[in-house]
Amino acid sequence: MKALVLAGGYATRLRPITYVIPKLLFPLVGRPIIYWTLDKLEGFQVNEVVFAVNYLANSLRATVGDRYHGVRVRYSLEDSPLGTGGPIKLAAQTIRLDDPFIVMNGDIIADIDLERMLMHHQQTEALVTDALYEVKDPSRFGSAQLDETGRITRFIEKPSRGQALSYLVNAGIYLIEPEVLKMIPSKRRVSLEREIFPILAKERKLAGFRFSGHWFDIGSIADYREANFALLEKCNENCLRPHRHVARNVIVEPPVYLGKRVVIEANATIGPRFLLGNNGTVKRLARVSESILFDDVTVGERSQVSGCVIGSKVNIGRDVKIGSGSIISPNVQISDNVRIGKNTIIHPYKEINVNVESGANIM
After folding, report:
1. Is 2-231 in CATH node 3.90.550.10?
2. ω into residue 242 within 30 of 0, thus cis?
3. Nearest CA-CA partner of 129 in 144, 110, 109, 107
4. What is residue 182's DSSP assignment?
5. What is the pLDDT of residues 159-207, one digit of tens each?
6. CATH node for 237-363
7. Is 0.85 topped by the overall pTM?
8. Which residues 6+ apart lie within 8 Å of 75 measured at CB?
């Protein structure tokens, strides 16, 4: 089995962090999102993966390389984003797609049984099988109408409220027969959902595979926080492994995840719902909760961080307070005694020496 992972978007709703770090390298309970995808594919006995890349492609290649465990990794570079269909056509120039292959959106984390999905695909004799997941609000996704034979009879991409066909939505995971390549135009942006799926649905060649369990479409900071906290909760109350550099009198309110080579100093309070990346430091008497801190972040003495997402290589000085909902980009320096209000956004490579009002956007 071969696979194509769509990873070429700009991730604008995750800016300003994605100005520096591509979405697929965002940590998810301590591991980049891209590795969660590769683990799922490797478990499905995929032996070759092509990443359809564009923005910050070199960062992905430098991190993953050309092999992951037993999986060969290739890259198909788009000069400009080609949607969901265009990258498949382009990738066919890099890898031979003579058999059914799997396509996944790179920012999808799903508890899905791909073996069962393949069996359903074979039984329905569909040209495409689309994984379907039930949500409360289908307006953000593609809504599908599924008949009793497991085929999708109608498909509408991002329906307006009240116009959805059902609460079953396109989960961003597909099994595709090579014949579909002939339906995709070359050298332009193509949407599978808007241009290809409606045709296949009319021809009864589009199947739907329903699954349950967790499913996260990490398209925004809110989605990213939700995915991290939900997976953290599955860690049986605490992902806190024994660390030589966690002081004995640290107050831990689970669930908490700590990466490698972290230092938590005396009388600090961490958690609940706190994730700290590799080489992170929380100094004495600091308190951090409801927050995701990337690698190489330092929280200074007596500082307070709550409800934030903080990118890599951020240094927070002493007696700093950062309000909830704030997003701090990579490579930011925050001086001692600074107060940062709620819902503040700070762009990369800034030095913050004065207080910042709530809702500010520091560019």
Report:
1. yes
2. no
3. 144
4. G
5. 666 666 677 888 899 999 999 999 998 888 888 888 888 889 888 999 9
6. 2.160.10.10
7. yes
8. 50, 51, 53, 57, 60, 61, 94
